[in-house]
Each structure stands twice: as structure tokens, then as C-alpha cells.
Specification:
Blueprint lengths: L4 H8 L2 E8 L2 E8 L8 H7 L10 H11 L7 E5 L5 H8 L3 E6 L2 H15 L4 E4 L12 E7 L7 H12 E11 L5 H10 L2 E5 L2 E6 L2 E12 L4
Parallel strand pairs: 3-4, 3-6, 4-5, 6-7
Antiparallel strand pairs: 1-2, 7-10, 8-10, 9-10
């Protein structure tokens, strides 16, 4: 008997569902019930990996609301750190051809299952380490990422990913709730020839709390 991806996930994890409003439309996410149960001491000892992907962060809500209102038909979109897939789902609904990436295989599996549940189709998925980008990753019209600047070194790393993967006239948006590497990220992007085109602040509510999330919009400086 062939086991579907969703069945495999639910065999390996105790799962729950969470409903989220994205631009007035409901998204139902399948997610692990306990993040603590996913912690792998070997993974942490090797490179301090923790399963942040398994939670739904306020920055992802803010980014998803923004992306859902875009027109992506005929355009490619790369998500960095897709987690459970909420922003990928918003991009798929907007019509983008989405490639969702993460550092965890399980994140990619949940993102695919959640996309199929909510949109009826899955994104392309790739396991990506920002420190060693695949040579064939390509360039994208749109790059999105939510809450990826939580480690000091990630400012430079994420800026370098944008430099490698964003098309000449592309737009990148990194949703940030005030993490430690945000300012270093903007500085690194500017040093690589990007400009901060906009940084609107969006509110996101979670468990009764209100979070203020900056949407850092980066474009390449085009010299005429």
C-alpha cells in the first residue's frame, strides 16, 4: 500500500491543526503538537539547530497578509525558511510559481501537505543551507522570508542569499519583528548593491498579543 506524505507525517508526529486568517481567507495548518518533542540533541550539538520551523511566528502572519494581495501570475517566488508553509500558501494563492526552502526535511514535508490542503497544489521544495547554496538554485522574481534574522550571523548570510538568488529587477521582502541581526542585514544588503525601498510596519496578533513587524523590502540599485 502506498503511503501518502500526509499519512507519513501523521505516523511520525503527533499533530494538531491551527486555523489562521490570511487576508480574510482561512488557512488550516497541520503542525506538530509539541516543539519540544522535536528537539534533537545531536542536531543541536552539531550546529545548534532547533526546530523553530514547527511554530507559527507573528512575522509569518504579517508577511502572508502582504503577499496574499499581490499578483504573482507568471512570476517565480522563493521562500527562505518556509516552516509550516503559511507564506508559501499565500504566495501560491497569489499565483506565484513557488519554491519553498528550509533547513529541515520535515518543514518541507509539512509545507507541501499544508499547501495541498489549502491551495490544492504543492510548491517545489528544496533542502537548503544558506551557507552552501545549491549551484542550480537559480534566480527569482520574488524572494520572501519571515523571522530569519534571529542569530547575529544571519544578517550577512541572508543578504548573500539575496545577492545570489534575486533576479535583476526582483523584489525581496524579509518580515522582521525586531531581531538581533536586522540592522546588520540591511547594512549588508546595501553593501552588496541593494536599497531598502520600503519598511512598512504591520501588526500581527498571536495569543492575544500584538506584534509589530517590519516588512523590509529590498531591490537592487539599477544604474542607468
Amino acid at each position: 500500500m502506498t503511503v501518502t506524505l500526509a499519512e507519513d507525517i501523521e505516523r511520525r508526529h503527533v499533530c494538531i491543526t491551527q486555523d489562521v486568517d490570511v487576508a480574510g481567507q482561512r488557512v488550516t495548518l497541520l503542525k506538530p503538537r509539541s516543539i519540544e518533542a522535536l528537539i534533537d540533541e545531536e542536531d543541536f550539538s552539531r550546529d545548534e539547530r532547533l526546530p523553530y520551523w514547527a511554530d507559527l511566528w507573528p512575522a509569518s502572519r504579517a508577511l502572508s497578509d502582504a503577499v496574499a494581495s499581490e499578483t504573482g501570475a507568471g512570476r517565480s517566488c522563493l521562500e527562505l525558511g518556509c516552516g509550516l508553509g503559511l507564506s508559501t500558501i499565500a504566495a501560491l494563492r497569489a499565483g506565484y510559481d513557488v519554491t519553498a526552502t528550509d533547513y529541515y526535511d520535515d518543514a518541507l514535508a509539512f509545507a507541501r501537505v499544508n499547501a495541498v490542503r489549502n491551495v490544492g497544489r504543492a510548491p517545489l521544495t528544496r533542502l537548503v543551507d544558506w551557507r552552501r547554496l545549491p549551484d542550480d538554485l537559480g534566480r527569482f522574481d520574488r524572494i520572501i522570508a519571515a523571522d530569519v534574522l534571529y542569530e547575529r550571523d544571519y544578517g550577512q548570510l541572508v543578504a548573500q542569499v539575496l545577492d545570489r538568488a534575486l533576479a535583476a529587477h526582483g523584489v525581496a521582502t524579509v518580515a522582521d519583528p525586531g531581531r538581533i541581526a536586522a540592522d546588520a542585514f540591511v547594512s549588508a544588503c546595501e553593501a552588496l548593491g541593494f536599497e531598502l525601498a520600503a519598511a512598512p510596519v504591520r501588526e500581527a496578533r498571536d495569543d492575544g498579543l500584538t506584534f509589530h513587524v517590519r516588512l523590509l523590502e529590498l531591490r537592487r540599485v539599477i544604474h542607468r
